[in-house]
Amino acid sequence: MADARGSGIRIGRFLGIPIYADVSLFLTGALVAFGFLPRLQDVDPSLGSQAYLLAGGFALLLYLSILVHELAHAAVARAFALPVRSVSLSMLGGATALDRKPDTPGRDFAISGAGPAATLVIAALGWVGMQNVASDGLVHLILYQLTLSNVIVGIYNLLPGLPLDGGSMLAAVVWRVTGRELTGQVVAGWAGRVVAALTAATPFLLGAYQGTAPNSLLVVWAAVIAFFLWNGSTQSLRAAKVRARLPLLALRGMLRPALLVTAATPLAEALRQLTEARAGALVVTDTAGHPTGLVSEAAVAATPVERRPWIPVNDVARPIVPELVLRPDLTGEALLDALRRMPASEYLAVDETGRVLGVLAAADVDRLFSDV
């Protein structure tokens, strides 16, 4: 489970939640199918071209089981009235994106554990199915491989390190014990790096144990998984640093003083007035003094100095829409959520009467987190 935004090809919906498949999924699906072909042909050499259909069907079943894993996360999150943005499938598994984090460690633990639990249930059902079919047939082979795959995926996902589900569960336990959510995220993030390192080392440890050279394919696959795990744990640690700094994020304390100018004011004159007034941002108004546009700092910088006397300030301004107007009491996560809803370079802050209080520059927010 993760909270990344859904991307890729939209393949359906579940409980109103869009489901996406990354292009890489089809590549790895083909690799899984071709890897399974020899096993099918060993069991029944007479299959011919039907072996390709069965191998493709097995790959589809495997990814359907991964989809069930993610939908279990989504269903439990919905049961706790948490909005689920999307479910995504990719070459290394899946991700369930939530619009906000669970507000208690118990709910966080339950949502995180739902995926591995569903995967292990699928493995158990596969094992039961194996007991009721001929042990030397194709159905038994498919059930065996599906069961084995889900056992491996389920157990591996329970390893206690982010971004794995077991890491989220560890973070929830530490949060419960310490009362500090960020402490749980940091502990699980560092544990994720340990899991990544052990994953990369596994082929070499197996080779040393067996007294043979490590399997080259296993080395490459372990390295790919370890790379993604290390990146995921690093992102989790960075997110923890960002959240630790959120108390410093308050709109009122970050506003640049604004100078109000009419739309027809030449840019050069507006910049002269800005310097004279020691303001930090330009706001365009109509003839009645109502704000209509926010001058873009980037657009001003891109305008040659010699042209500025002939360009009206409105030409380098972005029209003000409701999403660009912020309440002055916004702080922390609420402020970040407002910025995410409408990405822009500048935002306008007004009080309850509509009076302009100042301009928030996204660059100033970025600087607050520049060393994270």
Order of helices and strands: EEHHEEHHHHHHEHEEHEEHEEH
Task: Give the CA-based shape.
Answer: elongated
Overall number of strands: 11
Which stretches of 5+ consecutive residues score pLDDT under 50? 2-6
Query: What value does the Rg take, in angstroms?
Result: 27 Å
Q: Give the strand order, joined by hyphens, for the main sheet.
A: 1-2-3-4
The helix/strand class is: alpha/beta
**What value does the average pLDDT take?**
90
**Biggest β-sheet strands, sense, barrel:** 4 strands, mixed
Describe this structure in words.
The two termini are 23 Å apart. 56% of the residues lie in helices and 15% in strands. Helix 3 runs antiparallel to helix 5. It is built from twelve helices and eleven strands. With 372 residues, it is α/β, with parallel strands linked by helices. The chain has helices at residues 23-43, 50-79, 105-130, 138-157, 165-178, 181-210, 216-245, 251-254, 267-277, 297-301, 332-341, 362-368; strands at residues 9-14, 17-21, 84-90, 93-98, 258-262, 281-285, 291-295, 317-319, 325-326, 346-350, 356-361. It has two domains: 9-247, no CATH class; 251-368, Roll (CBS-domain), CATH 3.10.580.10. It has a four-stranded mixed sheet with strand order 1-2-3-4. It has a four-stranded mixed sheet with strand order 5-6-7-8. Strands 9-10-11 form a three-stranded mixed sheet.
